[in-house]
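Extended Data, panel c. Modelled sequence:
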Amino acid sequence: MHEYEVGLIEISLDFLQVKFEDCVMAELGNQRIRYLENYWDRVPWSGTTDGIIKGSSKYYFSSLGAKHDAFDLNGGDAAIVLDLIKPIDKKYIGKYNIVTNFGTSEHCGVRDEQYLVFNNIDKFCCHGGLIIHNVPHTGNWPGHANVWYTIDFFKELAKIYEYDILALEIQERRGQLNSEDYKTSPRDSDGNFLYDGSLQDMVTCVLSKREKNVSVSKNDFSLCEMHLRDH
């Protein structure tokens, strides 16, 4: 997670007119915030044997008073172990007024399974809550995950789930590729990674879930799926 994404959460809370103490956040992936001081300092944490690091968003947002649940198969940083392309437990449905997807959904299954993760994102969010996406735009972060997103994908997503779009734009980010991406990432004639540390585009979308229940089928979601791109 970058400072830009922390800012998206702060702006979203302002929109909802709630403070961190009133924020109940569902985070896809156990995120870490790169610019924090004392990043690697460990602190005790309930349910863990060795605590968590201060660089984790779990620690950061909890210290501000938010009720924070991270969901990740790896269980890192006290995340709840959960497969986001499988049905979620009913105890999580409608619980959260902020749901964040910062570079996670593109790792959750292949293109044909994106319905499952986006339907779970909808289920996490309470009526009147906000969903914040910041995910790779088509053609960017090559070799990074399974799918790319487009502006049209989120326009169609908002239409079928009847969300209000509060923000939808392309945002540039500079950052290194993950080490596991190195095998597939293109290099120049000298062997240097062409995309390592370069500016890459993300699609930023902030959605408001209206005060009503909307049921979306896999067939309905095909209207969104046509705007996804395979890596």
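The beta strands are 24-28, 42-43, 52-53, 67-71, 96-102, 125-136, 147-148, 163-174, 199-209, 229-230. This feature is highlighted in the accompanying rendering.
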